[in-house]
């Protein structure tokens, strides 16, 4: 008995009418399609009822995926066996970047293929609700203001917890420091004034000496 060989086959399936959450999926956009190897090996548009047929696919291995603008779908590994006329089309789950060396280790899926969307595509970023922490992170001045208010409210309580004698000693030390700083500033002012006054006296003495020398010279000429 001669063996039967499959040279080409039609890949059939349909899109599940509901997604994983039970929401309605169909009808999809008119340009939604099922493709093999990103369209290089075959393509079929999805009908309004969700069915699709890719005609005359040659024997070999392909990656089947769905191209749609609204939903995301899983991908599948489709093998068309030329020497298995009883079961020529074998479909298995496919994960990008995770190829199995032995396809027989991956369980077969029912055929015709039923494709159910995994999620709805979001093209716009969802607007986040009001977040106090997010507002503080964006404006550091609010954090400084809150810290100042907490410090001002907590300082009296902190001072009340300090020993009165230790508080008096701290206040006395602060007063001594303040008086020392004032004294240093007054010394600087007094030194500056003394320098100014001494400079004025020196200039006056030099002027008087010059006048005296001039008068002596004039008197000698007259004599």
Helix content: 25-40%
CATH class identity of the largest domain: Mainly Beta
In the CATH hierarchy, the architecture of the largest domain is Sandwich
- Kindly report the average pLDDT value: 77
Give the total of domains.
Answer: 2
Structural class: alpha+beta
Provide the low-confidence segments as ranges.
216-223
Query: Span between N and C termini?
Result: 163 Å
CATH topology of the largest domain: Immunoglobulin-like
Main sheet characteristics = 5 strands, antiparallel
- C-alpha Rg, in Å? 48 Å
The portion of residues forming beta strands comes to 15-25%
Keywords:
single chain, 223 residues, alpha+beta, Immunoglobulin-like, 2 domains, five-stranded antiparallel beta sheet, three-stranded mixed beta sheet, 10 strands, rod-shaped, disordered C terminus
Q: Topology of this structure?
A:
Blueprint: E1 8-15, E2 33-36, E3 42-45, E4 51-58, E5 60-67, E6 71-72, E7 75-80, E8 89-94, E9 113-115, E10 119-120, H1 132-138, H2 140-161, H3 164-222
Parallel strand pairs: 1-9
Antiparallel strand pairs: 1-4, 2-3, 2-5, 5-7, 6-10, 7-8
